[in-house]
Amino acid sequence: MPDTPLSVRDLAASYGALEVLHDVSFEVRRRDVFVIIGGSGSGKSTLLDCLIGLLHPTRGEILYGGESFTEAPVARRRAILRRCGVLFQFGALFSGLTLAENVALPLEELTRLDRREIRRIAELKLALVGLSGFEDFYPSAISGGMRKRCGIARAMALDPDILFLDEPSSGLDPIGARRLDELILELRNSLDTTFVVVSHDLDSIFAIADDGVFLSSDERTVTAWGDPRRMLEQTRDPRVREFLTRGESTEARP
User: Fold this and answer.
1) What's the whole-model pTM score?
2) Which of 76, 154, 198, 201 suits 184 as a labelling partner, its CA being 20 to 30 A distant?
3) Residue whose C-alpha is closest to residue 207's, from 156, 253, 155
4) Quick check: 164 and 194 in contact, CB under 8 A?
């Protein structure tokens, strides 16, 4: 796996005539937890949609391992995305499927493994996120934090190089959010997985991030970058400081 599995160069994205992002550039290093942060309306979700192929940028380039994703034909883009996993907000599990069946779905759709092998892999992925013994439970029977964990297990089903997490701690209580942060770091360290995380949860941001970018809702581009702690120490932008402190004293922030 290359040292820079994901690069974004001069990206712009629009909805019709409305330009939501422009001149967005950054690189994600291998094994980093990279955070995309910013206030409401700053374009975080739009950027994520571009990265996972749900929205085509109006300008610029996205590269996976040095290979252009934006310029690749459709079949090649699908092959590139197989190296990625996505946790959508609130887990996005199928309510009519058990946890094991949810995790098995990408394997059934995209591999030629037999049912026994698929079940074994699903059980292994659920065990990795602390859900061993819950394989045959339905999403309605487990907590929100467990649903997020199952969503991560499903995202890992095809052994991706990069995991994209969209607001992973959203809707969780502080204990559940902290446990999910610990899981992210544990998976990064044990599996050498790279994470790209969209988040507004300050506790989570400071707990897990190695690097990141701040998107300004006013300027619609990246106005700060780096480790969030260093961002906070070095920024002269009051919007960045306000976001990273929620208006509180910086002395209270680790």
Assistant:
1) 0.91
2) 76
3) 253
4) no
Map tokens 């290359």 to a residue.
2
Residue range 11-22: mean pLDDT, rounded: 94
Q: Are 122 and 157 in contact (CB under 8 A)?
A: yes
How many residues can be counted in the chain? 254
- Which backbone phi and psi does 153 adopt, to 5 degrees? -60, -45
How far apart, in whole angstroms, are the C-alpha atoms of residue 123 and residue 101?
Answer: 10
User: Residue 161, Cβ neighbours under 10 Å: how many?
Assistant: 18
Rg, Å, the chain Cα set: 18
Work out whether strand 194-198 and strand 33-38 pair parallel, antiparallel, or are unpaired.
parallel
Q: Which residue has the tokens 């996972």?
A: 52
Residue 28 to residue 194: CA distance in whole angstroms:
8
CB–CB of 60/24 below 8 Å?
A: yes
155-197 confidence digits (pLDDT tens): 999 999 999 999 998 888 889 899 999 999 999 999 889 999 9
**130: which DSSP letter?**
T
Q: Whose CA is closest to 10, among 21, 23, 28?
A: 23
Contact 150, 132 (CB under 8 A): no
**Predicted local confidence at residue 38, as pLDDT:** 93
Rounded to an integer, the average pLDDT of 131-143 is: 95
Contact residues for 134 (Cβ-Cβ < 8 A; gap 6+):
99, 126, 142, 146, 150
Looking at the predicted structure, is the pLDDT value of residue 249 above 70? no
